[in-house]
Amino acid sequence: MAIAGNHLKMQQLNLKNLSLQEMEDLVSSLGEKPYRVHQIYEWVFQKDVSSIGEMTNLSKNLRNQLSELSYISRLSIADKRVSKDGTEKYLLMLEDGNSIESVLIPDEDRLTLCISTQVGCKLNCAFCLTGKGGFIRNLNHYEIIEQILSVRREKKDIINIVLMGMGEPLDNYENVIKSIKTMISPHGLKIPAKRITLSTSGLIPEIKKLAKENLKINLAVSLNASDNETRDKIMPLSKKYPIEELLKTLKEYPLPPNRRITFEYVMIKRLNDSIEDAKKLSNILKGIKCKINLIPFNSYEGVDYEAPDYKNVEDFRNILISQHYTTIIRKSKGADISAACGQLRGKWQG
Ligand code: SAH
Ligand code: SF4
């Protein structure tokens, strides 16, 4: 019986995997009026119901029809860890047995949720634990959005969403853009675009494509070096997309008013943390409306790199500030539960 049930479910549509456009197609295929599209979308993404039966403003007939060809499901939170500093890490089980992590970060008076976009990552940056585990697969719309919904069920007041967890968002372009559209839609999650930040390691063609989407979200770029030689050592994609080309693309990136690109710079001892590196960085970023986040390298078992001395991080920041760059040292949160940048692996033992 259970197998037959699962089999049936496989054939059905997961309503949480549908874009607004796809919901429109579904509703019109049922011969229903267009206003039903927004009603159903709001039940799924705003009221977060767990069954079609709860959609009480739909006719009984429509609910029956929908139940026959679709379903709503949830990802289960397999485990949760809480750091001394209040950061929470969620392990979510996917339906195929893979798992991913999302991290909830309290920041002064607001909560930021860091979500994943892939199981693993292809880009293999030398300092990143996610990259070390290789690539398994892309997450779909349902799995990306459900990370927000599942954590929201516990904590209502998530303010910011950052696509900075496991994976390279622009390497899963279609699903990520579809998900961001649902996040910002007034009938979807209703999250203001300025509260969403996508972080990329710098896939130039996809950054150009993203520019044309006009989503008005924030863009963060993991630069992590100020010359190609150093960047090549730690980010294999740099050979394909050199720094000059990346920065040229970002100079042309259309920013909404009063917005800047964020550059992330993971500082690694003796690799990219010298005064000369800071000076080079301030030179190459000239002419780009930006701010800089310095992230001291977060260590993990078996890695060869070391965190920089704090004095170097401060000196580095002071050089950038003296050149009028807004520069923040991102103190990593949740390191005691391996929830800090680059420590996500999606598998827990014990
Ligand atoms: N793939 C995207 C988003 C996920 S990585 C990207 O690379 O931007 C999110 C951030 O974590 C990136 O800025 C990355 O450089 C940083 N990061 C990765 N490993 C890290 C580590 N071990 N310590 C500190 N930051 C790390
Ligand atoms: Fe992938 Fe980003 Fe990690 Fe690089 S830093 S391996 S792009 S997740």
**Main CATH class of the largest domain:** Alpha Beta
Number of helices: 12
- What are the low-pLDDT stretches, counting only 5+ consecutive residues below 50? 1-5
Strand-residue fraction? 15-25%
Gyration radius, in Å:
21 Å
Q: Which oligomeric form is depicted?
A: single chain
- Record the strand order, biggest sheet: 3-4-5-6-9-10-11-12-13-14
Whole-number tally of structural domains:
2
- Helical coverage, percent range: 25-40%
Which geometry do the CA atoms define?
A: globular
Mean pLDDT: 94
Strand-and-helix sequence, N→C? HEHHHEEEEEEHEHEHEHEHHEHEHE
CATH topology of the largest domain: TIM Barrel
- Architecture of the largest domain, according to CATH? Alpha-Beta Barrel
By CATH, the superfamily of the largest domain comes out as: Aldolase class I
Number of E-type strands = 14
Cα end-to-end separation: 33 Å
Bound molecules: S-adenosyl-L-homocysteine, iron/sulfur cluster
Explain what you see.
This protein has twelve helices and 14 strands. The chain folds into two domains: 70 residues, DNA polymerase, domain 1, CATH 1.10.150.530; 246 residues, Aldolase class I (TIM Barrel), CATH 3.20.20.70. The radius of gyration is 21 Å and the shape is globular. The strands form three sheets. A ten-stranded mixed sheet has the order 3-4-5-6-9-10-11-12-13-14, covered by helices on one side. A two-stranded parallel sheet has the order 1-2. A two-stranded antiparallel sheet has the order 7-8. Helix content is 34%, strand content 21%. The protein is an alpha/beta fold. The N terminus is likely disordered. Bound molecules: S-adenosyl-L-homocysteine and iron/sulfur cluster. The site of S-adenosyl-L-homocysteine has 16 residues, from strand 10 and strand 12.
